[in-house]
Amino acid sequence: MTKQDGQEGHAISDAGPQMAFPLRRPTAMTAERFITSPSNAPARAWLSRKVWPDGRLWLWGAAGTGKTHLLSVWAQEHDATILDARLFSHASSGGRIRVRGNLAIDNADSPGDEATMLHLLNDALTQGDRVLMVGRLPPSRSHVSLPDLGSRLRATATTATGEPEDDLRATLLLSLLADRQLVVSQSVTEWLWRHLPRTGNALVSAVERLDDAALARGTAITRALAREMLPDLLMPDMSEE
Questions:
Q1: What is the C-alpha separation between 41 and 25, in angstroms, rounded?
Q2: How confident is the model over 209-216, as a mean pLDDT?
Q3: Is 35:70 a contact under the CB 8 Å cutoff?
Q4: Distance of alpha carbon 184 from alpha carbon 87, whole angstroms
Q5: Which pLDDT does position 222 carry in this prediction?
Q6: Which of 73, 103, 178, 194 has its CA at a distance of 20 to 30 angstroms from the CA of residue 93?
Q7: Where are the alpha helices (DSSP H) in the chain?
């Protein structure tokens, strides 16, 4: 695997022509932009360890709790290649994907091809490289058909991110709006924070929907727009305000 900081890498097969393989290295998810809190402290502690059992760690948690951000930060700090497990596929040419160096696998609980993931884990163990895997479910609740892969994953050390505390939710909402360069009045952001569910995923989904709607209509983000676009997220009594 050849790679350069801030650029896409290339995956090489054992035989046959070079194979295109999607690799990504998000640039906005830096250590400076990560919001620390008690809900992600256990995960940060595990990621800071210099040694993991068998060189593997599985990080899981609900959407919107910072897992992919933590994966990106760890990858940047340890010169790791980032792969999306959903994009794994069987190599029709008979070759297979090899990665040299540390590896960070996102969506590890939904691999597109289990054999590819197993080979990557075996290669990393042989080479003495570290592997960070991230998913919404722990290995014990992830459906894996390949027995050898299932045993590897169940033997992997795990840690988790929890749902954000109130202080983190407020900061996260402002950060999500800033990332999309959205200017929203303080009264509206405070209203959204009070009435959206207390999960990171709800905040992410709400900001995405409001951004899309405001852009399509050429309007500002208001309470009225939020009531219209977020009926399934806002509290039931919102229409009575």
A1: 23
A2: 93
A3: no
A4: 36
A5: 94
A6: 103
A7: 41-47, 67-77, 114-127, 147-154, 166-179, 186-195, 200-217, 223-229
